[in-house]
Design brief:
Blueprint: E1 21-23, E2 32-34, E3 48-51, E4 54-56, E5 72-75, H1 81-90
Parallel strand pairs: 1-3, 2-4, 3-5
């Protein structure tokens, strides 16, 4: 789903146990905020959640720990670092590039040539 201004929350996903992958993204010219990831908690088939350009109003990531088959996240750092660390401790089997502590270091540009 991209740039859905008519979707104030994701409550309707609470019983979507048939979903393998869900992607909720904003468009370049529009910010989209999800109120909470709580409706995703416990989704039985969810293997991947994508939300790189979507923000969270409630920054808890722990509802994702309750998705037994979740194995891949592609989300931005839109929650405090301790939220990601807590999720990593609870679910070390989930792949997410920001779980690497080096990814939180100061960004630098490398010279070419």
């Amino acid at each position: 789903m991209t740039n859905d201004k008519m979707m104030p929350d994701i409550e309707w996903l609470r019983e979507a146990h048939h979903l393998d992958v869900i992607g909720i993204e904003s468009a370049i010219d529009c910010d989209h905020t999800i109120q909470s990831l709580a409706p995703l908690a416990g989704l039985q088939s969810l293997r991947a959640f994508l939300g790189v350009s979507t923000r969270l109003a409630e920054t808890s990531l722990m509802p994702l720990a309750e998705c037994p088959k979740l194995e891949f996240l592609d989300i931005a750092r839109y929650a405090p670092r301790f939220e990601f660390e807590q999720l990593r401790r609870a679910r070390p089997d989930i792949f997410w590039r920001w779980f690497d502590p080096k990814a939180w270091g100061k960004a630098t540009l490398k010279a070419i040539g």
